[in-house]
Amino acid sequence: MVDRLFLLTPEFILLFGAIVCVIAGLSNLAVIRRRVGFIACGFLLASAVSVPFVYNSSAVETSDALFPHLGAYVKFFTAIISIILVMAAGGLIDRNYEHAVAKGKDRFHALRSSGGEFHGLLLLSVTGLMLVCEARDLIWLFLALELVSLPTYVMVAMSRWSRIAQEAAMKYFFLGAMSAGLMLYGFALIYVSTGSLVLQEISATFQAQMAVGGGLTFFAIIGVLLSLFGLCYKIAAAPLHLYAPDVYQGTAAPVTAFLAFIPKTAGMLAIILLLSMIGWERGLPPVIEMSLWVIAVLTMILGNIGALLQQSTQRMLGYSSIAHSGYMLMGVIAGPPLGLTAVFIYLVIYGLTNTGAFATIASLTKEGHRVDRLEDIAGLYKHNPLAASSLAISSGSLLGIPPLFGFWGKLLLFIAAISAGQILLVVIAALTSAVSAWYYLKIIGLAILSPLTEQSQRVTVALKWPLIAAILSAIIAIGGPFALSSMIVDANQAMMLPE
Amino acid sequence: MNGLMQLISMPIGMPAVPIDQIINAPQFAWAGFILWLPLLSLILCGVCAAMKVKTKLPAIITILSLAGAFVLTAMLFLNYEGPVTIHLFDWIQSHWSDGAFIANFALYVDSLTLLWMLFVTGLGTLIAVYASEYMEHDLGKGYTRFFAGVSVFLFAMGCLVMGDNLLMLYLGWEGVGFASYWLIGYFYTKPSAVAAAKKAFIVNRIGDLGLALAIYLIWSTFGSVQYDVITTAMESHQHDAAFGGWTVNLIPYLLMLAAFGKSAQLPLYVWLPDAMEGPTPVSALIHAATMVTAGVYLIIRTYPLFFLDDYALPVVAWVGGLTALLAATIGMAQYDIKRIMAYSTVSQLGYMFLGLGVITSFGAAYHVFTHAFFKAVLFLTCGAIMHGFAGQLDLRKLSGLRHMKGWKIVSYTMLIGCLCLAGFPLTSGYFSKDAILAEAFVTHGPGFKVLGWIAIFTAGLTAYYTFRVWFRVCCGEKMYEAGDELHGEDPASFHPHAPRIAINTVLVIVSIGAVLAAVPYFTENTTEGLHGGWVAEMVNDSPGKHGLPGMAHGHGEDHHGSILGMDPHKAMYYISATVGFIGIAIAFFFHLLNRKAADKVRSKLLSSRTTRWLPTAMEHKWYVDEVYIALIRSPLWITGKVFALFDKYIIDMLIVNGTAAMPRIIAKWFAPLANGSVQSYGVSMVGGALLVGLLMLFMPEIVELIQYVSAQSGGGQ
Questions:
Q1: Nearest-neighbour CA in chain A from B9: distance (Å)
Q2: Chain A: residue nearest B2 by CA?
Q3: Is pLDDT of B715 > 70?
């Protein structure tokens, strides 16, 4: 028991951090309130640092997990990316309110400030993601996934004075609840067909069923399918992607960046866990493989085409993040070793560059309002070359321009899918990502080349921390490929099976 | 693709395949600084440019780093005991199931490398000193850019010469090409300079293509791009005639193409004369002494590969000999002294390739060595004249330089350079040229004897055009006209400004070097049976040892030919001296004693219908540029225009815009789905999931149904 708890040290650090953040956010002292972000970053860093110690310790026994080393990879990278996510939100939460308090126009009131809650919830959500990779049974998996999602519903609603954010939060919550229902129903059916909740036991039962030759039972297939659909909501894959554009547009940019990474990673990991119980060695059951195939194709097409017409930057990036889920599903279909390695690496690359793009948007302001129209970023280069360049580099990386980081991620996914024989899938992916060039290049062109317009003249770079986050991820997008080979080694390690 | 996949799934960072032949020398790791110092200087120059430094700081940085590189090279030379590999860092290592591609950032140091690096870094340092004064009119403007370019060049040249594999050579090859482009186009506001830079780069691309293909073929044949592995593989397949198939025979020709491009040989020599648009120190360093000899280096380095095909070396010899003749005839008829020197460089490079072709890698290497010094002297004196007379280079408008105050050093160092170039007895050029000429009569090959006589005739032409310059510019009565780069001075009250200490010192040092370059020919050899002194000794450790005097080169012991019944080596001393004297004497008569006679001869030739073509064609460089434009550039240009129209109307308008419009139209169909209402989202999501799920679950039934229907319709037919 103690060993098990020791394994969860990174989670405990974050849990403790969440409590500290909430308390610090209620402090009467503005000095402390404004430093909540730093506190959160500190705990995330501590959590990341603790990962190698925990996993290299001999006291830890992880052989009862499906992927004993998955946690080491995921926890470390999510903690690091979460630091950039926190930076992207730096100074944005409660900005007007804190400004008023600082000027003496308003008095501090605990109920009206939300900085503490925001960071606390953020850490809780990351904790949930970390718990997903340690899941040993279906209940744990479900609770961990809900721990990822529940805080995000509140985070979306955090912009209390924005009606559009309230609407987005409401949609997100209701549809999320529905998808959780789907998933839970699927889990129940899996339990019905195998008689166990423990992942390893389910896996053994599945293997036994497949070895007999008859394949999985009907209920097992329905169960897996329903769980898959439920999880598709988390990764915003078609046909459960419909909420994503509205929600991504409605919330503040850093929250959107968070939504596009943490729940998506959790969902992707859960899908991988689910499918690895069936295993790729004998080939996935055709029904499941075909469903995944259709979902991947639909997601890539709808995501990329949907982004074309958008006039809102965040909505466009929201559609783009849908399309990226489609690319990653390609790797899931291809399966281990190449496919999963590619997905693990792509998650990190996508998380970093997507955060970079949203962070740039977050750093901008137009006379105190948030910047959302695409035309507002026209001629950004003339205002702030750094912001424009990092936006361009992030978009370029999302598009996959060589030699940026995103290119290598996409290359790995394509190679994996080709080696698994999914030629048609790769052709579709290549075509849709060619379509995606249209809107990514539009962002780059607007930010770098286009002249200032009357609208965009009023846009200013107001916040330094989001800008730093954007520059940081742009630097990683350029320098990351040099670390690619060691990341491949780590990712290979992550998907090693228990001996 | 297979390889890439393996790359991902296999642990990265496997140790390289151990090769016993490589003698690693980690104790020489400091030799890496021969490369890093110029690179550092480049970075510092970049910093200077960013800080807008207006002093001579960039020159000082560059000179110090190049001098450091020279000192390190000299130390490496003094510690040299045999070929070694110095591993700097892992560069490209891809392994897959049945092979590997390894190209490390490693140095391969044999004595050939050292020979080249000694004069590259040595002359590089001296010419940088010279340029610090020469370029001072551009202080604060292009000064930093110039020295940054020189640093890039030295770094790239170091990679080219010192790399232990062909890929590093390729890196350097492209790097020097880029540096050359950078520096030829230094005066980028001048259209002719920009055109020349482009021409140099584009013409070189043809050769580079050859090199890239050659590297690929070498790798696919021998399984490696590392020199020692290639050599070992070659030795093990020496007696296997069928080895590798026909592509193996292509390798020397592709390498040759690369060498002809970089070293300005027929048919790719046209870029080098135009490259004189760059600042003169650049012409001296890059386009005379060092970069253009990279082709010679490439062939010596890969010399064993040239024996793969029987006709490879004869082709090299003939191309070299004809280039030498052609360039010399053009050089005779030019008036711009820098341009004359440029054609002379092409011509002398032709000699080097002739030497390689007639299997005397020693002669070629020695001529590279002596030529580097004396041609540098000549270019640097031209530069001094250009500097002092506001860009004046026309030999008709300058005269009697040696009688002018402050121009003595320039005149007499130029004389030394001219004597060496003309092959005046006992100068360095005399010995190195003779080593090549004699070998043309020794080696048996298709028409090598004819080639020998052509080369001797060219030697006479060389002596003539060289001294035409010297007698015109430095002797005779005092006379000058200012050039067109007056920088606001009044042409009427123009006074030439004589070179100062930096230029003069460098001129003296380099000309002493040019004189002393004769000495290595006579030093004693430690290797038994080897003649030819220090340079031969330096070539001996390298793949070029096939072409050393006194060593067997596959033609048997009775290979010695004869020339006019005498031993070729002895005969050549007399013949080439005589031819040289004749050339100098003609120049003396026409260009010093009786300058009007030269014009008379010219007008006489021009007035006669039958002989008019000769001087015109020579002055117009045999119309080679015009032929290239008509045969290559115009068709390409027309094709380009046609393609551009096709691109604009068919591709852009019809295909691209049409295709781009389609996704947007499709997007409009789906827009109603995203109407913002939760209920419809919920229905769409669950409905969509159900649809996909049901479709999949009942797939066997659906497939059966489709088969049934198709069977029915098939049966109905």
A1: 6
A2: A419
A3: no
Do A298 and A240 touch, CB atoms closer than 8 A? no
| pLDDT tens string A150-192 | 999 999 988 777 888 888 898 899 999 999 999 999 999 999 9
Whether residue B118 is contained in a domain is answered as no
Instruction: Please tell me if residue A300 touches chain B, with a CB cutoff of 8 Å.
Output: no
CB contact under 8 A, B670 and A287: no
Question: What's the pLDDT score for residue B238?
Answer: 64
Task: Tell if the CB–CB gap between A171 and B681 is shorter than 8 Å.
Answer: yes
Of B557, B588, B614, which residue sits at a domain end? B614
* Helices A36-56 and A9-25, axial angle in degrees (round to 10): 170
User: What element of type H or E holds A37?
Assistant: helix A36-56
Domain range holding B698?
682-717
Residue range B93-127, pLDDT digits in tens: 877 777 778 888 888 888 889 999 999 999 999 99
Pair (B438, B345) in one structural domain: yes
Residue A332 within any structural domain of the chain? yes
Residue B465 shares a structural domain with residue B348: yes
> Please, which residues 204-223 of chain A have a Cβ atom closer than 8 Å to chain B?
221-222
- Predicted complex ipTM: 0.73
Task: Give the nearest chain A residue to B669 (CA atoms).
Answer: A306
Q: Each residue of B541-550: pLDDT tens digit?
A: 777 777 777 6
Q: How confident is the model at residue B16 (pLDDT cuts 50, 70, 90)?
A: very low
Which member of A174, A290, A305 has the closest CB to residue B699? A290
- Across chain A, mean pLDDT equals 89
Domain count within chain A: 1
Which has the higher per-residue pLDDT, B666 or B152? Answer: B152
Q: Is residue A200 part of a domain?
A: no
**Domain assignment of residue A335, given as a range:** 280-499
> How many domains are contained in chain B?
2
Residue at A484 is within a domain: yes
Nearest chain B residue (CA) to A493: B11
Inter-chain residue contact B685 with A175, CB threshold 8 Å: yes
The encoded tokens of residue A488 equal 């491949």
* Percent of all residues in chain B with a pLDDT value above 70, rounded to a whole number: 91
Cα–Cα separations (whole angstroms), residue A221 to A102, A289, A335, A446, B324: 59, 11, 18, 48, 81
Residues B572 and B717 in one domain: no
Residue of A166, A182, A235, A242 to mutate for B, most B C-beta atoms under 10 A: A242
Q: In terms of domains, do B599 and B717 share one?
A: no
Where do the H-state alpha helices sit in B31-165?
33-51, 57-78, 111-134, 143-162
> pLDDT-derived band of residue A2, with 50, 70 and 90 as boundaries?
low
Mean pLDDT for B162-183 is 91
Residues B338 and B196: their CA atoms lie apart, in Å, by 15
Q: What pLDDT is attached to residue B10? A: 36
Residue B24 β-bridge partners:
B85
- B585 in a domain, yes or no? yes
pTM for this entry: 0.65
Cα-based distances in Å from B300 to A465, B355, B490: 59, 11, 52
Q: Are residues B607 and B702 in the same domain?
A: no
β-sheet bridge partners, residue B165: B226
- Facing A306 at nearest CB: one of B660, B670, B678: B670
Residues 388-427 of A with CB under 8 A from B: 412, 415-416, 418-419
Q: Is residue B318 part of a domain?
A: yes
Report the share of chain A in percent with pLDDT over 70.
Answer: 99
Q: Number of residue pairs across A and B with CB atoms under 8 Å? A: 107
Residue A443 falls within a domain, yes or no? yes
A65, A134 contact by CB (below 8 A) = yes
Can you tell me whether residue B86 is helix, strand or coil? Answer: strand
Cα–Cα distance between B565 and B572 in angstroms, integer? 12
Same domain, B576 and B711: no
Whether pLDDT at B624 is above 70: yes
Task: Note whether B364 and B442 are within 8 A (CB).
Answer: no
Per the domain annotation, does B119 fall within a domain? no
B323 and B439 belong to one structural domain: yes
